[in-house]
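Deliverable D4.2, example record:
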Amino acid sequence: MADADPRILPDKQQMRRAFERAAATYDAAAELQYEIGNRLIERMDFIRIKPRRILDLGAGTGMFSAALMKRYRKADVIALDIAPSMLARAQARGSWLRRPACVCADGEVLPFADDSFEFIFSNLMLQWCIDLEPVFSELRRVLAPGGLLMFTTFGPDTLRELRASWEAVDGYTHVNRFIDLHDIGDSLVRTRWAEPVMDSERITVTYRELPRLLADLKQIGAHNVTHGRARGLTGKRHWQRFAVAYENFRQDGVLPASYEVVYGHAWSPVNKHDRTASEVPLASLQLHREKRGRD
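Output generated by the structure prediction step:
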């Protein structure tokens, strides 16, 4: 992944600014993000762990930092995000007796000592990383032996309608890069995680009008932040051609926005220096489900 086309890689400075601006509107617009995070929380019902320290990686406004504090009442929860304005809202979660500790940092370079956590939870953050293998290596470094990583991210079919519609207009990148489930699983294996498990599902959110879809993406900070994006304003003619292209996807009176949601979990090996982490046949673990969303 390090040799990917640099045009499709995220611009970290632009990404930080986008999430800074979105902090005030994020909670009202992030219905899909909260739905996916809640589904990840539900999967924890089948895994028995008693972590003392938990890292919420890419915590945003702290919705799931609060959920983790409620589930693990004796654990210290650290909310990490790249945007200070997001963390200002996360800091208000919980009660005056117990709030998450907030750390502003890049999730690809963690400011923690080795073996700092027993559980790392990450909802829809990994798609913003430039190269997953160094990220997974860094996460394994700060996760104690026998600790658990659980995450969600988006797969390459995410916003496929948006991508195809812009490709009919110009040669710039207009949609952020999303990594294939198999490549994510391979990265976990290469970075020596134990017992990696991957699966995916498809969720379709529907809109009556295109501006609402674009506004939702902007309000959560999830609009285009790739290096290959157009740097000037998009002209009226381009917007009109884009809108016409997107109309080709309209069905039953609504416009779809497709999301390929990837779920994964893996364990830090009990002996972290053991290079024989267990491998799981990823093809046998894929689950593809579809759901119609709101309009």
